[in-house]
Specification:
By secondary structure, this protein is of the alpha+beta class. 22% of the residues lie in helices and 33% in strands. The strands form 3 sheets. Strands 5, 6, 7, 8, 10, 11 and 12 form a 7-stranded antiparallel sheet that branches. It has a 3-stranded antiparallel sheet with strand order 3-4-9, with no helix packed on it. It is flat.
Length: 177
């Protein structure tokens, strides 16, 4: 009777290991796809040696439209006259007419980010996003604040706008960590 139990448990463990390996591989592929959506992996024959045909590179949807997502650098802290400024810069996107900036902020000790509200200035806003033609955005605060920002490029105007994907989130703060 113990022998049957050991065999049954061994079978269950082997099946679980096989399923678990597949889940890890799927998770790894999903993570790789999110990091660079232009690369897909074809592993239909896992026992065969990898060849150049196993990795397929394809143009992302935005690249085929001629507009790519910006790459945003982490915020650089500078002393302002009334507050501490955090300047975020990104690479200019060829062909872009402007950029939408989604920026969130929170006091240093808070856990949750909230939409950033700029003080005085001539910042144009469209719904929840700031609009700029520059490839930089300056946030400021008088206290210890954290910022997170993502940016997307656009071409066109009004209902005819075409957008890139959002950039990866970049971070900055008004204090030294």
């Amino acid at each position: 009777m113990n022998r049957k139990l050991v065999i049954a448990l061994t079978c269950v463990m082997m099946i679980g290991a096989l399923v678990g390996c597949g889940a890890k591989k799927d998770a790894a592929n999903a993570e790789a796809s999110q990091a660079d959506p232009s690369i897909t992996v074809n592993d239909s024959d896992a026992s065969a040696k990898a060849s150049s045909s196993d990795v397929e590179v394809k143009a992302s949807e935005d690249e085929s439209k001629g507009i790519t997502a910006p790459i945003v650098k982490g915020g650089v802290t500078n002393e302002g006259s009334d507050a501490i400024n955090v300047e975020f810069e990104w690479n200019p996107v060829e062909g872009a007419d402007g950029y939408e900036v989604d920026i969130q902020s929170k006091p240093e000790d808070d856990k949750e980010y909230k939409p950033y509200e700029a003080g005085s200035g001539d910042l144009e806003k469209d719904g929840d996003y700031y609009i700029t033609k520059d490839n930089k955005f300056v946030a400021s605060a008088q206290d210890d604040f954290d910022f997170q920002i993502k940016v997307r490029a656009f071409t066109g105007e009004g209902d005819d706008k075409t957008y890139s994907d959002w950039s990866k989130i970049s971070y900055g703060q008004t204090y030294d960590k």
